[in-house]
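Chapter summary example.
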Amino acid sequence: MLQVNAKYGIGTVVRHRKHSFRGVIFDVDPEFSNTDEWWQAIPEEKRPDKEQPFYHLLAENDSSYYVAYVSEQNLMMDTTGKPVEHPEVEGLFGNMDNGQYRLDVQMN
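The structure predicted for these 108 residues follows.
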């Protein structure tokens, strides 16, 4: 099995390198773990390598909020220090602390 170390952790605020959206990471797959249909929908010349971490983001752009699935090569740190406004952030993470979110989920 391939051993891959993720560059970003849960709670990290990142932005896409090519598209104008940002978000907070809420889960990490050590390598591609989505459907073949999803993979095939990406134009071949833009498809990232499957053998790298992929991140689940609570994402936002200028007009909407959504969940994104993004390869590590297409992400970079968001250095704005601004909170992510996605409506699910508060319930999962609570408040931003020093540019980072911490999981705020209570296990009962």
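To summarize the output: Residues 13-101 form a domain with the SH3 type barrels. fold (CATH 2.30.30).
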